[in-house]
Design a protein that fits this description.
single chain; 276 residues; alpha+beta; Jelly Rolls; 7-stranded mixed beta sheet; 4-stranded antiparallel beta sheet; 15 strands; 25% helix
C-alpha cells in the first residue's frame, strides 16, 4: 500500500512519466542552502553548478536533503522501499545569462539497467516558465532511447551538451515549483529547460534515485543507500561528509566528475548490459 501517493498518482506517473508538485523542505532551509552555495562560490571561485556529479555530498545540508523523509516517501511509492541515491547536481541559471538545458533523456548517460531511476528536482528558489523551469514531454519515457548529439555548447548546462536533435515538443509541460517544493520524473522521459529571462537567479537540486536491484552497465560504481536494505550488492558506498567540503569527500566527487565528462565515455558504452 502506498505511503503518501494515491493509486491515481502512481498510475499517472507510469503513464505520463512525471509528478508535481510536492511539498519538500521548508522555505528557510531552501534559502539557507542558497547561502551555502554563495559561500562556496566565494571560497572556490566557481559556482557549485560546475560540480557535475554527486554535488549533494559537498554540503551537509544537501546531504540531509537527499535523505529527507518527505522526498523518500514519494520515491518509495514509485520504486519500492530499498533506495539508493546515485548522484546529484545543482542547476543554477543566473538571470538573463542565456544558459539552458537541451532536450535529453537521463537514461542515455546514466548507465543503469533496468531503467527505473527517478529524478527528484528540488526547487531552492521559485521555478517558473519565466526563469526557465524544468519542462517534460509526457509519455516519452515509454518510447525509445533517443540518439544524443554531444554539442559541448557553453550555454548548455549539461556537461557534454547532449541534445536530441529532432523532437516534437508541442505538448511539453512546465513543472512550476515554489522554493522547497519538488517534482519527480522518470529517467527516460525527454526533458529540458529554457533560459532564465528574469533578473534573478533560478536554483534547483537534482537528486537521482534508483531501487537497489538496479545494476550499473559501465562497471562497478559507488552510490548511497538512503532507505531500506541492499540484498544485491551491486554498488559500493559513497563516503559520508562530516562537514561542508570535506576534503576526502570533495576529492571523491571531483574524480567522479572527471570520469563523467571524459570524452571517451559515450552513450553506447552506457547502454551496454552487464553480463554475469
Amino acid at each position: 500500500m502506498p505511503k503518501v501517493l494515491t493509486d491515481q498518482q502512481i498510475k499517472f506517473y507510469h503513464e505520463k512519466g512525471y509528478l508535481a508538485p510536492f511539498e519538500g523542505i521548508d522555505a528557510h532551509a531552501a534559502a539557507a542552502m542558497c547561502e551555502d552555495l554563495d559561500a562556496f562560490e566565494r571560497d572556490e571561485g566557481m559556482p557549485a553548478s560546475e560540480i557535475i556529479v554527486k554535488a549533494h555530498l559537498c554540503f551537509r545540508r544537501s546531504y540531509e536533503f537527499s535523505r529527507h523523509p518527505k522526498i523518500l516517501d514519494v520515491v518509495e511509492d514509485l520504486i519500492g522501499p530499498d533506495i539508493y541515491v546515485l548522484s546529484s547536481r545543482f542547476w543554477m541559471k543566473p538571470g538573463k545569462d542565456g544558459t539552458f538545458v537541451s532536450w535529453h533523456q537521463d537514461s542515455a548517460y546514466f548507465g543503469l539497467e533496468p531503467n527505473e531511476l527517478v529524478t527528484v528536482w528540488l526547487a531552492l528558489t521559485d521555478s517558473e516558465p519565466e526563469n526557465g523551469c524544468l519542462k517534460v514531454i509526457p509519455g516519452t519515457h515509454r518510447g525509445k532511447i533517443y540518439s544524443h548529439v554531444e554539442t559541448f555548447d557553453k550555454k548548455n548546462l549539461l556537461a557534454r551538451g547532449q541534445s536530441i536533435k529532432v523532437i516534437d515538443s508541442s505538448d511539453a509541460v512546465d513543472l512550476v515549483l515554489r522554493a522547497g517544493q519538488f517534482s519527480c520524473h522518470h529517467e527516460r522521459i525527454v526533458h529540458g529547460s529554457d533560459a532564465n529571462d528574469t533578473d534573478d537567479i533560478r536554483i534547483g537540486l537534482g537528486l537521482f534515485y534508483f531501487p537497489a536491484h538496479v545494476r550499473s552497465t559501465i562497471g562497478r560504481r559507488p552510490a548511497s543507500l538512503v532507505r531500506g536494505v541492499d540484498k544485491y550488492g551491486h554498488w559500493d558506498a559513497d563516503p559520508v561528509p562530516s562537514v561542508d567540503r570535506d576534503a576526502d569527500v570533495y576529492a571523491h566527487v571531483k574524480a567522479a566528475g572527471e570520469r563523467y565528462t571524459d570524452p571517451q565515455y559515450d552513450q553506447e558504452s552506457a547502454r551496454e548490459k552487464v553480463t554475469t
